[in-house]
Amino acid sequence: GAAVAVAVMGSSGVAAAAGLYRYLRDFCGCHLSWSGAQLRLPDPLPRLRAEIRAAAPGRYRYYQNVCAQSYSFAWWDWARWEREIDWMALSGINLAPAFAGQEAVWQRVYRNLGLNQSEIDKYFTGPAFLAWNRMGNLRRWAGPLPPTWHLKQLYLQYRIVERMRSLGMTTVLPAFAGHVPQGILRVFPRVNATRLGRWSHFDCTYSCIYLLDPEDPMFQVIGTLFLKELTKEFGTDHVYSADTFNEMTPLSSDPAYLSRVSNAVFSSMTGADPKALWLMQGWLFQHQPDFWQPAQVRALLHGVPLGRMIVLDLFAESKPVYQWTESFYGQPFIWCMLHNFGGNHGLFGTVEAINHGPFAARRFPNSTMVGTGLVPEGIEQNDMVYELMNELGWRQEPLDLPSWVSRYAERRYGAPSAAAAGAWRLLLRSVYNCTGVCVNHNRSPLVRRPSLHMDTELWYNTSDVYEAWRLLLSAGAELGSSPTFLYDLVDVTRQAAQQLVSDYYLSIRQAFQSHALPELLTAGGVLVYDLLPELDSLLSSHSLFLLGRWLESARAMATSDREAEQYELNARNQVTLWGPSGNILDYANKQLGGLVLDYYAVRWSLFVSVLVESLNSGRPFHQDQFNQAVFQVERGFVYNKKRYPAVPAGDTMEISRKLFLKYYP
């Protein structure tokens, strides 16, 4: 066909890219997401009758959560980073962190300050846990970092900042928040540092990090040295991120102290870069509201000149902070959708909250809102919600969601289908429409350690998901060649299977409590020997649902067998035990082919056999004894040395249909 020139102009590379995606999306019916692209262009390309102008209502569209650096990006190579940055540009993202390689720079600074390598090795965590080392939560666990890790991350960071800036994005660099290795106390014995308390369920072996008193002269020295070194290496766009109190209680609630802390953090930024802007996560205010009363919040925010800090209202779709802080007491803020914790799988969204929240925040009295943001702890899940949020960042008013989602289905699969659109409208009104305070941790019994007190509560009607599953399968003949359709078929079938696991769990519990051995054997048998293996083979049929993909990408970062082993253990531990002894057990649960069969199913098998044994012997079931036994199973998986395929096997549609014929209620 004849080429059609469509002039797309923008105030920056990002604006032009976002304009291009808007043309592809709204005029060519294309779609781009983490799970695939649908880029069948009409021939000839549609001409625009008139100029289409779009201006975003806020200055910034922000993307990335500090935790995603570990839950999702930990093992990325340059090819994967490049894809993400291109997706960011097309989505209109213009402000984002560039956090890779900072440990290499810190190591240089620590060595210059006089620390030795073993003191540094006792500080850094392994690659899969660096997010929490950077926030002062965790040290040493799953470490140390090999020298080659630093080299590879430096290389990535050069490419990341170059690519982001070439597209007109503002990069956010890390700054010094006050956390220091214990070795600093050996080199500077008179320094005033305090040991913070334990984080989460870790003891002081791996947490209790030292926090340098912001008023100690060394605070400015270390902070400025680090930032000078970092900006000399990577250049700067003058925006820096630092979180001193992420999930850690400050040493004093005295407002004067809190003002001094934020002032010291900011001074160490301006010492290296007089134009510095501080980007801060607002997570702490809603995470520990008892400590952060209005006086404390105001003190921390007012330790920095107005306009020189931008606060991320990190969980604004469920627990907005701007409303009870008079719009952050005058500091600019970004309305962020957090949406996902731990990179869990599970269909979820708060579409009404995000469709109205940003507009309400702009209308708030004396609002200081300067943009919208996407800050999931893990990505590559629930594409629809992110596409919606990205579109809302450019809009002046809410969307008509049912008609939006019908168009979404057509763009995503590259062909109109009444069945697919119907399935999406059902999903929109059920799983994607959590209202009230919604915290999306996947608590399904499928991905949790079995007990007799498991949570099976849901925020939606399960029949809507079963019906959406039926509709998607019925569209298989027309849409089966679309990669995004097959991804969604796996995802919706997986959600249905997750619901079924809860039903079988309730039958198992009921049978045990009423001493009905035959019923217990039946329900337990179906769950352990059929449903979970079938779910595993479904997941194994799609490359994006493979455990092997996660593990092999970890191994690919290594330059020796020993590193490959360390990285693989990092990757396995993060999605299961999260710590040496199940400290944050199953927080980062995933539903992956290989993991369902060799981890979740083995746990359930043990649970069922212990219950059967209890009924047979007449001895009561003891949860704590079971926990000790099941911990060996969990640990056994982390160290099983089995290689999992990184290539899918089996026919997705066939497996989904087989599950459907057997289990559709």
Question: Which helices and strands appear, and what pairs or packs with what?
Answer:
Layout: H1 13-26, E1 31-33, E2 36-38, E3 60-63, H2 68-71, H3 78-91, E4 95-97, H4 102-113, H5 117-121, H6 130-134, H7 147-166, E5 170-174, E6 179-180, H8 183-187, E7 193-195, E8 210-212, H9 217-234, E9 239-241, H10 255-272, E10 277-281, H11 283-287, H12 294-302, E11 309-313, H13 326-329, E12 333-337, H14 351-363, E13 369-374, H15 383-392, H16 401-413, H17 418-429, H18 462-474, H19 476-479, H20 483-513, H21 517-539, H22 547-556, H23 561-575, H24 595-617, H25 623-638, H26 652-663
Helix pairs in contact: 1-3, 3-7, 4-9, 9-10, 10-12, 14-15, 16-17, 17-18, 18-20, 20-21, 20-26, 21-24, 21-26, 22-23, 24-25
Keywords: Glycoprotein, Glycosidase, Hydrolase, Signal
Pfam families: NAGLU, NAGLU_C, NAGLU_N
Organism: Anthoscopus minutus
Mind explaining what this structure looks like?
By secondary structure, the protein is an alpha/beta fold. It has three domains: 1-94 and 306-399, no CATH class; 96-305, TIM Barrel; 419-663, Four Helix Bundle (Hemerythrin (Met), subunit A). Helix content is 49%, strand content 8%. The chain has 26 helices and 13 strands. The chain has an eight-stranded parallel sheet. It has a three-stranded antiparallel sheet with strand order 6-8-7. Strand 9, helix 10 and strand 10 (277-281) form a beta-alpha-beta unit. Helix 3 (78-91) runs parallel beside helix 7 (147-166), helix 20 (483-513) runs antiparallel to helix 21 (517-539) and helix 24 runs antiparallel to helix 25 (623-638). The longest helix is centred in the C-terminal third of the chain and has 31 residues, at 483-513. The chain is globular. The model has no long low-confidence stretch (mean pLDDT 96).
